[in-house]
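Entry for the shared binder. Reason: the reviewer on the internal report wants the predicted structure included alongside the sequence.
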Amino acid sequence: MSELNPSGGGSGMIYPGTPPKDPILVLVLNLLVCGGAGYIILGQKMKGIIAIVIWVAVAIPTCGVVSLLLALAAAIDGYLQAQQLRLGHPIGRVDVLQRSSLIRKLKAES
């Protein structure tokens, strides 16, 4: 499981664990289990709970359309977050697509 800030500083970062979480597993869990279960296994518990609550709240009023879109977005985001952990990069508890390698490269070039 990913470790929260091993230095004890309380920064809210999640550091890579051993073994690292499989990005495909996170993608499938976010896609199939209420749009947030993959976040929970990554250590982004609050983000996962919020995603699940929103998924449930909009499922009936929108006939599942918005829930499906949320699950797709969560699956992609969860996959990218798990990739960053697998590469050895820490992620924040609520990061959303902020740690992708493309964004890192763009920040490094500017």
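Summary line for the report: The radius of gyration is 14 Å.
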